[in-house]
Write a structure and sequence with these properties.
This protein has 342 residues and is mostly helical. It is 76% helix and 3% strand. It has one domain: Formate dehydrogenase/DMSO reductase domain (Formate dehydrogenase/DMSO reductase fold). A two-stranded antiparallel ribbon has the order 1-2. The chain has a two-stranded antiparallel ribbon with strand order 3-4. It is a multi-pass membrane protein.
């Protein structure tokens, strides 16, 4: 297997890791106003991800760095074409992170209420825009080759807001929301756990319907794609995993439900990457204008150096993250929140 293909897979794995891990962070943030009856409840919800949310976001940073180093043309074209959308995502992530840190400063109820709103919107906007962006990548975009060998995005932000793109955004948002609710049920006790499970059952049904429509539309769009069997296989596994996660949550097996939701997100993204391969960006102007993996990759020496760095560093990163989750594995209850805490 060529290094260009290996690094396409590595970037894909990093992005899958990001959406599986930060995905439930987004879901927890979206659930904050729905499950938080009072400030203690809201503290319980926030504390489920308190030790890990910033660690989960590092997957995006690493994925972006690898994207920049391995496929600079993809990085440049996507970041220039999706500039406004990515700027909004960045601002939302900053707002959410600041809110986690400043919410508890004890400046009064109004202060806390504003930061709770920032957490909600900072958790809702990124998956909505990420899903829209990825759906547009596999549907195709108006990109063309420039004289200097690069690619130019010839659309606008409104180009991305098409029915299929928006359906992709809604699908990822619902997946993250359900994922987060199941994580709250997995990490809490008593009434909070039961309310999270109940809301996850309702949200899960909506997610199954919307995700099924998106995956079916994706398959139909790529009937002539040589990777169609792989697309169908990944989409089918994602659908089965999502349904299995819903059943597991309904019978009170939150661990299996969380695993099912994580697998659904992972295989849905694998279906997207399968539909994209061997391209990085599909041109709606002409097939000849599409950005291929080989055409946008860095030099062979650069990829070789990056491969050696990844071989030595990735196991350490994975081990540290696994250790962190093990340390903070216990459930949280209202009794764990000190009286008067913010």
């Amino acid at each position: 297997m060529e290094l260009t293909t290996i690094w396409f897979l590595i970037v894909g794995v990093l992005l899958i890791g990001y959406f599986v891990l930060d995905g439930f962070d987004f879901g927890v943030g979206m659930a904050l106003p729905l499950l938080g009856k009072d400030d203690t409840d809201r503290r319980v919800v926030i504390n489920t991800i308190g030790p890990v949310w910033d660690l989960n976001e590092t997957w995006l940073i690493v994925a972006g760095a690898c994207l920049f180093a391995a496929f600079p043309e993809w990085y440049a074209t996507m970041f220039s074409g999706f500039y406004l959308a990515l700027l909004v995502i960045l601002l939302a992530l900053i707002l959410r992170g600041v809110s986690f840190e400043y919410r508890h400063q004890g400046k009064g109820r109004e202060w806390t209420r504003w930061f709770d709103q920032f957490i909600f919107w900072g958790s809702l906007v990124p998956p909505l825009l990420w899903g829209t962006a990825f759906a547009n990548l596999i549907q195709g975009l108006p990109i063309s080759r420039m004289d200097n060998g690069g690619w130019l995005f010839e659309g606008t932000l409104l180009t991305l807001l098409n029915p299929y793109g928006l359906l992709g955004g809604v699908t990822l948002t619902l997946l993250c929301f359900t994922h987060g609710l199941v994580f709250i049920a997995l990490k809490t006790e008593g009434d909070m756990r039961e309310r999270a499970r109940k809301l996850a059952r309702t949200a899960g049904l909506m997610t199954i319907v919307v995700a099924a429509a998106f995956l079916l539309w994706t398959v139909v769009q790529h009937l002539e794609n040589p990777t169609l069997p792989l697309i169908i296989a990944c989409a089918a596994i994602a659908a089965v995993a999502l349904a299995a996660g819903w059943v597991a949550n309904a019978v009170g097996r939150e661990g299996w439900a969380f695993t099912g939701n994580a697998a659904a997100i992972a295989f849905a993204l694998l279906a997207i990457f399968s539909a994209l391969f061997p391209n990085l960006m599909i041109s709606t102007i002409s097939d000849a204008e599409s950005m291929t993996i080989a055409g946008a990759a860095s030099s062979q020496k650069t990829l070789e150096l990056m491969t050696w760095v990844a071989v030595f560093t990735m196991p350490l990163v994975l081990a540290y993250q696994a250790w962190t989750y093990w340390v903070f594995r216990k459930r949280i209850s209202r009794d764990a929140i000190p009286a008067g805490a913010h």
